[in-house]
Amino acid sequence: MHLVVLRWLAVGGQLVTIAVAAGLMGVALPMVPMLTLLALLALFNIASTVRLHSRLPVHEAELFVGLLVDVAVLTGQLYFSGGVHNPFIFLYLLQVALGSVLLQPGYACSILVSASVGFAALTVWHQPLAIPTIAGSEFPRPYIAGLLVCFLLDASLLVIFIERIGRNLRERDERLAQLRQRAAEEEHIVRMGLLASGAAHELGTPLATLSVILNDWSHMAPFAGEPELREEIEEMQRQIARCKQIVSSTLVSAGQSRAEEMERTTLRAFFAELASAWQELRGAVVEQQYGELPDEPIAADPALRQMIDNVLDNALEAAPGGRIVLEARREQDDLAVFVRDEGPGFPPDALARLGTPYASTKGAAGRGLGLFLAVNVARTLGGSIRAQNLERGAQVRITIPLAALTIATDGPHPH
């Protein structure tokens, strides 16, 4: 891409130079062959632009051929305009510099040899260029001006090109750093998944035992006759039910019985059921806003449910007893989910480290995994999570492509 841009600059620069030399300085130039070469270079660059937009990988041999064309056209232009006596002879250095940056040593040496052969040939074969001189001056004024323009052109194009190459290298390093960070996070998730899966298997039996014991207690006279004890037993049963759900979700997320857990439902039904279950288990209230949400069929991915539950849990912990809002709407081809609370908001450093494991703002060791898991689930589904502070409280925005959730219309009807 950069080579195409530089070639367009070269076409424009040569056109301006020919016009200035012939029109303002009165230098006699063979206009037809020089403009023909310029037109051929422009056509070649148009073809290069079309090739670039084909999105096929550009091979190094193609770059080499492009630079050879540039050297050949420059040699032709110099042949018709004085050869080595033309101050723009030093534009060969630009071609050599571009070759050394863009190409492997073998191709770069070939460009150097081509430029050197062209330079040497122009010392013998060229059409003489009549440049008017000034009395008392060893060099013609236009020659000195041409040297200055050539130097400025070489220096400017090299600065532009090398700066863009450096920017590309920095962007590449940033992408590599992001990929390394993502690989480390995924490795961390794998380790957590193995530990969580093992723990879920071990917790199944004691949770079932506790559920049976509490159910027996609820029917015993000493507990049934005491309203406060009965309420506490009911709360304990709700918490055990929540633990069972967490264990089940953990096993599903680990890959067990996932096909059976992928329920067919609709967007509105999914969020209504999610909010209802969350409110029942947490004993809190969430305000639901689905005004712009279409009622279309989706696959209710348990990972998506768990991700939104984690974000709602964080909102509840940030603002216990405060107003919590769950909003979902469609934005073009994406599902946008917003969770807002009226808590103290995110500290600036927490926003910068959103989704980093154990980067909790609650001051407890081992916390901060909720948003970390949510960010990685959203990334797995092809989406993203952003957080921001509001005038009062904070907001977490989840964006998921609808294509990652939609399902075929055949099979059982959504429920």
Number of helices: 13
Strand order of the largest sheet: 2-4-5-7-6
Main β-sheet: number of strands, strand sense, barrel status? 5 strands, mixed
What is the arithmetic mean of pLDDT? 79
What is the succession of H and E elements? HHHHHHHHHEHEEHEEHHEE
How many whole angstroms does the radius of gyration measure? 35 Å
Strand percent estimate: 5-15%
Q: Report the structural category.
A: alpha+beta
The count of DSSP E runs of length 2 or more, i.e. the number of strands, is 7
Distance between the termini: 52 Å
Oligomeric state of the chains present here:
single chain
From the spread of the alpha carbons, the general shape counts as rod-shaped
The portion of residues assigned to helices is 55-70%
Instruction: Report low-confidence residues grouped into runs of 5 or more.
Output: 256-260, 363-367, 408-415
